[in-house]
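Sequence design from tokenized structure. All designs in this work follow the same two-part layout: the structure record, then the generated sequence. An example of the structure record is given first.
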């Protein structure tokens, strides 16, 4: 007795194509329903970077920061159909007697890898001068330069935001 429960090859192909079409349509609808992950404005993008800078700055004792300045510059997004982005730089003039190597330990504790932070350190011309690359859990990249000479020391934080939604 022949097995009549099996579908023919044409019906199987048609059923498979229909299933794939439904899956693609469902994924497209879900994509349209998801919010845009980019910051809505350049100001929101700047605030996100500044909050990361604040977290890094909090790893220093308040008394070790002698002066603080910040520069925010808007620039066009390199991608078409996107809003502007922000380039943010914060300069911390710090006490030259601050042990910057010990501060690195405090920084790594403030930005734990278990929470999604990545900290990479490269020593420059001396033990106390170095470059640090921090990648935040939201993939914001922050470049830090810690340098000191002639009785002065400073830490410079630089980051460029992602492109905003606003055109």
């Amino acid at each position: 007795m022949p097995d009549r429960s099996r579908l023919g090859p044409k019906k199987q192909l048609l059923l498979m194509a229909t299933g794939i079409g439904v899956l693609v349509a469902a994924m497209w609808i879900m994509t349209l329903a998801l919010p845009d992950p980019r910051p809505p404005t350049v100001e929101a993008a700047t605030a996100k970077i500044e909050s990361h800078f604040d977290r890094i700055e909090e790893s220093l004792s308040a008394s070790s920061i002698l002066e603080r300045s910040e520069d925010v510059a808007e620039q066009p997004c390199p991608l078409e159909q996107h809003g502007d982005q922000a380039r943010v730089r914060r300069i911390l003039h710090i006490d030259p007697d601050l042990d910057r190597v010990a501060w690195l330990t405090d920084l790594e504790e403030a930005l734990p890898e278990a929470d999604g932070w990545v900290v990479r350190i490269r020593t420059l011309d001396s033990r106390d001068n170095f470059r640090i690359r921090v990648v935040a859990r939201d993939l914001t990249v922050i470049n830090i330069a810690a340098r000191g000479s002639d009785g002065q020391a400073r830490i410079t934080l630089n980051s460029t935001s992602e492109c905003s939604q606003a055109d």
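DSSP finds three helices and six strands in the chain. We note this feature because it recurs in several other targets discussed in the main text.
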